Write the structure tokens for this entry.
Amino acid sequence: MNVQTWRGTVALGGGTPDNPTGTFEAPTGNIKASDWLYRSKAASGIWLVARLWLGYEWLNAGYQKLWGAENAAFWNGGGAAVKGFATGGIAGSKAGTGGASYGWWAAFLHNFVVPNASWIAKLITVSEVAIGVLLILGLFTGATAAAGILLNLIYMFTGSAGVNPAFAIVSLFLILAWRNAGYVGLDRVALPAVRNLFHHGDHTEKETYRVPTGVLPVH
């Protein structure tokens, strides 16, 4: 029994992907709740709320580093906060009290992050602001949420939990719903435009080399 048959008949209560009859099965062969969350326009309102909340949190974090209370430790402080954070992660790892739980990550912090703390602090600041703005606008939502998870992982690997797990979970759902998460946003226009841009050459090539189906006139 293949996966498609198992999904349509056993898991969802009857039918096939082509002829769904199960209570929980959508015409696409997927679970109805999943289809609703990730495909319906109505559910895009849920993703809008999630996007705005997460976007504001990232934007505020970047704002504090660029113009707010953390400016002296990040943008204008030679990366003092990054250096201190990385050093604390290294120390915690050596003492066995947390910090960087993996030796290879502690080595990365020691050999790369600490010596380059100044420009890394600026990169983090700009990244947080950009992630916040793009999420709020709903532009390239899936890719932006993935960038946010990357920062969350970096912070958690260094030994800081805080809000990072919550941010990562919301970001993961936004990635899964990437087609729908930015529907109430710029993705509604941007994603079709990007798709058409990448497929334009393919369509042109197909039209150029298309074999005629009719009878050619004889001269």
Notes: The mean pLDDT is 81. The first helix runs from residue 3 to 11.
